[in-house]
Write a structure and sequence with these properties.
alpha/beta, Pyrimidine Nucleoside Phosphorylase, Chain A, domain 2, seven-stranded mixed sheet
C-alpha cells in the first residue's frame, strides 16, 4: 500500500503517545528531564509546514491534527493530565507562529471560529469536532455522517485524525460506539449461512507480539465438533504489527483474501466448518485508513468495534467471543452484541487484549482492575437474558503453570509450525492453550454441559486428528476456490 503521508516524525509520535489519551492516562509534556519538550514539538510542526525537514522526518498533517486536537481537549482535564506549565509557556511563546498555521490547524486549537472545511464531508466533520473538542459526545447520526465522510476520503488527514483521537480521548459513549461499528459494515450487510450454530471470534487487529495466537487452531477444533466459526482481521496493523491469523494462514499456504461469499461456502462445508475473512475484502475503505492509524499513534475507536464486526448469521444459534484490555469497554462490547440480536456473547480479558485465556490466572480482579482471564458474558435463552462475570483459573481444570510461557520465536511461520504440531498431538503449552481456549469458551457460551465435558470434547477432537483434518481441508479448499 502506498504511503500517503510524510513521516511520521518520531519525536512527535512520542509526544502523541503521552497526550493523545484519556482524562486519567494523559501525561503532560516537559514535566521532567527526558520528557518531550513542548517547544521542540512546536518547532518541528513549524519546520514541517515550511518544508524544512526531509520527507521522512516531517510531522504529517495527521500527526498535527491528532496533537492539536488532543491539546484542545486536555484544556478541560484535571491538574495531573491537563496542560503543564511548560506546555502553557511554549504555546504562549509561539502564539504568533501558531496564528500563521493553516486554518484547519488553527480551528483545532480554537483559534479560527469561522472555519467550516471544504465540501459537505468536511463540514460534517467540523460540526462534529466543535462538540468533541469541548469534551462532548455525538449522537449516532452525527457520528455516522462524520465517519462516512472519513471513510470515503472526503476529509483532509488533520481532521480525520482529530475526529478519531478526539472521540477516543472523550471515552466514546454507546451511540458513538455503535456508529463506529455500523459505519464499517452495517447489519444490513450480514450474509446468511446455512449452519446450525455460528460463532464469531474477534481479536485485536494488531496481532500478537509476545504470546502464541491460538485462534485459528481453536477454530479448527470447534469445526471438528460441528461448531462453525468465523475469524476476521487484517494482515498487519499498528501499533504492534504483530502476528495475525491472516499471516499464519499465509504461512500455511492458505488464502488470506477470501471474499465473504467464498468464505460462506467454506463455513457451510461440513468437512471444513470455518473461514477467515480479511478486512481488505469486507471493508476496503476501513482498511485503506491503516496508514492513518500509524500517524495518530494511539488506537482509534475502531480498535474496539472492529472486533465486534458480524459478517454472517445463521438461522439457528449465533454467538460471539471478543477480547478486550481496557476496563469499561467490556460492557460496551456486550451491548453491541445484544443489539445485534446474538444468542450469547463473551468478552474475555486475555493475553495481549485477546480472548485467549492465559495458562495462569495471576492476581484476581478487583473493583478497579480486571484480571487477565476475567470473563463476562450473556446468554439469551427463551427470551430470558442471563449474565455472568468471573475470573477463570486454569488451575481448576488441571492447567498448572507458574507463568504463562512464551514461544522462542515470534513469527507467523513459527506459530504455524507450533499450531500444526499441537493439532498433530504434540503436548506442551501450545497444545494446552488450544485445548483450554476451545473448551472453556464453548463452555461459557453454553455449547457444552460443563467445563470438564467441553475440555474432554476438545481433547478428543485434537487427539483423534479430526481438528487437523479440518484445518488441512481449509487450506486446500481455500486455494481451490480461487
Amino acid at each position: 500500500m502506498p504511503e500517503p503521508y510524510p513521516g511520521p516524525n518520531e519525536e512527535m509520535l512520542a509526544a502523541q503517545v503521552r497526550v493523545c489519551t484519556g482524562p486519567h492516562q494523559s501525561r503532560p509534556l516537559g514535566l521532567k528531564p527526558g520528557d518531550p519538550e513542548p517547544r521542540r514539538i512546536l518547532e518541528l510542526v513549524f519546520a514541517s509546514l515550511k518544508g524544512d525537514l526531509p520527507h521522512e522526518q516531517q510531522v504529517s498533517e495527521a500527526q498535527m491534527g491528532a496533537f492539536f486536537a488532543a491539546m484542545s481537549i486536555r484544556r478541560k482535564f484535571g491538574a495531573k493530565t491537563g496542560w503543564s506549565e511548560a506546555e502553557s509557556e511554549a504555546f504562549d511563546h509561539y502564539w504568533d507562529e501558531l496564528d500563521q498555521m493553516p486554518d484547519d490547524l488553527r480551528f483545532l486549537l480554537n483559534m479560527e471560529s469561522n472555519f467550516s472545511g471544504e465540501g459537505e464531508g468536511e463540514t460534517r466533520v467540523v460540526m462534529a469536532l466543535r462538540l468533541i473538542l469541548r469534551g462532548g459526545h455525538l449522537s449516532y447520526d452525527a457520528t455516522r455522517k462524520a465517519l462516512d465522510a472519513t471513510l470515503k476520503g472526503e476529509v483532509r488527514p488533520s481532521l480525520m485524525a482529530a475526529l478519531l483521537i478526539g472521540q477516543r480521548m472523550n471515552i466514546e459513549e454507546g451511540e458513538e460506539v455503535r456508529a463506529h461499528l455500523d459505519a464499517v459494515r452495517g447489519p444490513e450487510e450480514v450474509l446468511t449461512v446455512d449452519v446450525a450454530s455460528l460463532t464469531h471470534f474477534g481479536q485485536p487487529f494488531d496481532g500478537a507480539a509476545r504470546y502464541f495466537r491460538p485462534t485459528l487452531f481453536v477454530a479448527a477444533v470447534r469445526a471438528a465438533l460441528g461448531r462453525a466459526t468465523v475469524l476476521h482481521g487484517v494482515d498487519a496493523m499498528p501499533p504492534k504489527r504483530g502476528v495475525t491469523e491472516e499471516l499464519i494462514l499465509q504461512a500455511l499456504g492458505a488464502r488470506g483474501d477470501l471474499r465473504p461469499e467464498e468464505a460462506a461456502r467454506l463455513i457451510e462445508d461440513e468437512e471444513v466448518g470455518f473461514a477467515y475473512v480479511s478486512q481488505r475484502e469486507y471493508a476496503p475503505m476501513a482498511y485503506a485508513l491503516s496508514d492513518l492509524r500509524v500517524h495518530i499513534a494511539k488506537r482509534p475507536p475502531w480498535a474496539t468495534t472492529e472486533k465486534v464486526q458480524q459478517l454472517f448469521s445463521c438461522p439457528g444459534w449465533n454467538g460471539m467471543v471478543v477480547g478486550f484490555y481496557h476496563s469499561g469497554y467490556e460492557d460496551k462490547i456486550l451491548q453491541l452484541m445484544r443489539e445485534r440480536g446474538l444468542d450469547a456473547g463473551l468478552v474475555i480479558k486475555g493475553e495481549e487484549g485477546t480472548s485467549h485465556y492465559s495458562l495462569r490466572l495471576g492476581k484476581p480482579s478487583d473493583a478497579e482492575r480486571k484480571a487477565i482471564n476475567h470473563t463476562q458474558g450473556f446468554s439469551n435463552a427463551s427470551g430470558e437474558i442471563e449474565t455472568w462475570a468471573r475470573d477463570v483459573d486454569p488451575g481448576e481444570y488441571g492447567f498448572r503453570y507458574q507463568e504463562s510461557p512464551r514461544p522462542a520465536t515470534v513469527s507467523a511461520e513459527a506459530y504455524a509450525k507450533l499450531g500444526m504440531a499441537a493439532l498433530k498431538g504434540e503436548k506442551g503449552h501450545v497444545y494446552d492453550r488450544i485445548l483450554l481456549n476451545a473448551g472453556l469458551t464453548d463452555c461459557w457460551l453454553g455449547l457444552s454441559s460443563g467445563a470438564y465435558e467441553a475440555l474432554a470434547e476438545a481433547k478428543e477432537a485434537i487427539d483423534s486428528g479430526r481438528a487437523l483434518a479440518h484445518l488441512e481441508r481449509y487450506i486446500s479448499r481455500s486455494v481451490a476456490t480461487k
